[in-house]
Model the fold of this input.
Amino acid sequence: MTQLTAPPQVSRPHPAHPAGRPRLARLAHLARPARPARFVAGVVLGLLVTFAVVGPIVWPEAATQDLDRYLQAPTWSKPWGRDDFGRDVTARLAHATRLSLVLSALCVATALLIGGTTGVLAAWAGGWCDTLLRGVAETASALPALLIVLLVSALAAPGALWPLYLGIAVAASIEYFRVVRSRASRVLATDAVEAARLLDLGRWHVVRRHLWPDLRPTLVTLASLGMVTSILAMSTLGFVKVGVQPPRTELGLMLAEALPFFDVAPWMALAPVTVLFALTLSLWGLRSEEVVSR
Amino acid sequence: MTTPSVPRTVRILTARLAQACGVALMVSVVCFLVVQQLPGDAAYRIAAGRYGADLVDSAAAQGVRQELGLDRPVWQQLGDWCADLFTLDLGRSLVTTRTVVDELGPALLATLQLAAAALLGAVLIGAALGTEAARRPGGIVDRMCAAWVAASRALPPFLLGIGLMVVLSGRAGWMSSAGGDGLAALVLPALTLAICLSGLFARIIRDAVIEVHQSAYVQFARTKGLPERVVIIRHTIRNALVAVVPYVGVQAVVLIEGVVVVESLFSWDGLGHALVHAVFWRDVPVLQGASLVLALLIVAINTGVDLAVAALDPRPRHAGVTA
Done:
């Protein structure tokens, strides 16, 4: 079911690939998740989104402190207890989940837009346009997302959200460009597209009837994995205290804040970890086809 | 597209050199923009970093400004900046005033140790898991292996690191979580990274082993009456590893990202640690130096992988599909 098979060669002539290394190696094919697994993933994600939407409305004051009851153990009304400032961990968690979901969705949407358009453009136009775009992507592929975000975040005041957004979106769009370009050039080289061109059916027809149906499952997979990557990147940066700054709540930051109290109040650390896991695993389970891995 | 006139090695090296130059340019322009964007007066910030926030006055800031030439026009500074880079003068740390080369030399060594240990560990764990899973495709071990691959993608290094810290050094008390000397301190961060990287390796090795197992020469080795263990060690693993080498390059990006995080987590004094601190202090020369070296490390790993692949499998190949 999942052996490594080489995708069909592109028959369209390209300028010699600079590195000449087997770029197929970047494709790691993993099994498509079984139906029940996708269903469970969908339900879990739905619950998390509901928590992220409804939570901040139910508990609008995530920063309210109650210093008399610091590190209070979980109760029925405060299921995740209180933190070292007596703040309600459940409320903070809801705000953090919302931030993660909204910001990563924005990043992924931007990256898909940039990467998708440039990818199709490069595959379609070919020539110097393709060479230029691929050169940029090739160069940037040596810069990991985390490095880009760290560099960009040094541009802004500490705690600003836009460097996170910009860095993650730029880094992700490079990966999307590659995948979309290789996929699109394969589609554009098929007999069906050539027939459509000979019949003079127009570009819009090719996009709508040939490119889009073929790219859609890839884009869904890229989007769900991109959400995972950006949520993890955000929490990682929060954890090393470069990303989001207190008092704003973020999953990685919450974990970093909770760790010193792990011995007396382990639930504080478990709360963000649980949400992070549920988020990433459900998004991971939603992907619709083989996985493209870096 | 193979051009027979140019040797493959030369093509690989020129392409990678071009990539290295592009990366250097990208990083240094962004770093220069960072300098220009710094909130507040850069001279004051740097002086605060050097002498402590309580001891800064306008005289100290003026001294810093003149020393570093911060009062010149922007284009002049950018020109100097890039010229310095191409003469390999990375400048001095704004905080400690030591040269960036002095500052980052030991850090690079520490990072290389960590990365090498992690890669070795990842391949070993991956090989053990993968060959075990390939023995019975679809069996329990195989399914557990598939779950492991998924989990290793959903598990960011910092979470895994904390988990290991809590379990191994907290509960069990087996080893110290941070500090300690040399080898003992290396175990936890390297193990964390190795586990994170092992998922993909396990998968690749599993697939490759299954493919090799079905090949004629392995069938023959079995017919010859060799015991299964010998078949695996002598025939399967060696051939399967040829398929694994290209994935070291794919994992280079993940490895370097992981290095940044894991070093910060375990206070391992490497490049990632230096980088995060440089962002924190807006120490741009160190920021530039550390990100440059990290990015060039990825290029270097990929060059090595390219050359290794070319040596291992000298058949000409078409570089048609890029992904």
Q: What stands out?
A: The first helix of chain A runs from residue 35 to 58.
